[in-house]
Amino acid sequence: MTQQTTQQNIIFDLDDTLIYCNKYFYLIIEQFLDLMETWFHTYDIKTEQIKKKQIDIDLERVNRDGFVSEHFPESFVDTYRYFSVLHGRPVHPREEEQLMRLGRSVYEQPVEPYPGMFETLSHLREEGHTLSLYTGGEILIQQRKIDEMKLQDFFHDRIFIRQHKNRDALESILSEGQFDRQNTWMIGNSLRTDVAPALEAGLSVIYLKQQNEWKYNMADYTLGPESTLYTVTSLNEIPQVLDQHFQS
Which of 125, 137, 155, 195 is deepest in the core (most CB within 10 A)? Predict the structure, then answer.
């Protein structure tokens, strides 16, 4: 006799779990590289060198300060300054301003749901699960995405936005929301900020594996004897994973 899925607390990540995010950053980075190639075409600089320097600068600041919106455009400017000094090219304030505008434009891109977002959230809600949203970033930027997708219809007041997304942040949310860890799931695409902290906190986890993942999101994690971890590649798989888990 199969067992029906019991009501669970399900915490969703936002960026690159429910809505597209990284693809817009990659698009803006390509535009940055095009500009750099135009400005430095007479110098012996490979595109991969520029790209690696920008990534290194950006990741160092995310590790240090969390998700701060100005870090991304500033990484463009600092990369530009680095190669300008390295090769003796004058630094032009107008070019720096252009890079800042370009970097900030990533936060003005359309908000686009992943396939199956509305269907999956609706299905889980109809099954009686309690849905929460936990996202990293600045409140104004993340709230715009939430409002445009009308995600309050699914998450109501269970929306948590944190500048730092780590074990401490998750623990504060679990305490604040009085979550029963034995009946709580974390669903997200980041091994670093979703999967590893949730496993350490004793939650069940569904890892939504994405192609071309941001380097920052890749990290090691530890599976204990009682850990529950499933890997999926689309939102549409999640209800079935939960059903199968409780029928096994």
Answer: 195
pLDDT tens digit string along 79-121? 999 999 999 999 999 999 999 999 999 999 999 999 999 999 9
Taking 50 as the threshold, does the pLDDT of residue 2 lie above it?
no
Domain boundaries, the chain: 9-19+113-247, 23-108
Beta strands in the chain (DSSP E): 9-12, 130-136, 159-162, 184-188, 204-208, 229-232
Q: What is the DSSP letter of 110?
A: P
**9-19+113-247 CATH:** 3.40.50.1000
CA dist., res. 65 & res. 2, Å (int): 48
Q: Which two tokens stand for residue 11?
A: 């915490």
CATH architecture of 23-108: Orthogonal Bundle (1.10)
DSSP-based helix, strand, coil % in the chain, nearest 5: 55, 15, 35
| C-alpha distances out from residue 52 to 46, 47, 132, Å | 10, 9, 36
The DSSP letter of residue 17 is T
Q: How many C-beta atoms lie closer than 10 Å to residue 230's C-beta?
A: 17
Strands 9-12, 130-136: pairing is: parallel
Q: Which structure tokens are listed for 72?
A: 């991304």
Structure letter (DSSP) for residue 195: I
Under the banding of pLDDT at 50, 70 and 90, the label for residue 3 is very low
Q: How many CA atoms lie within 13 A of 136 on its CB side?
A: 25
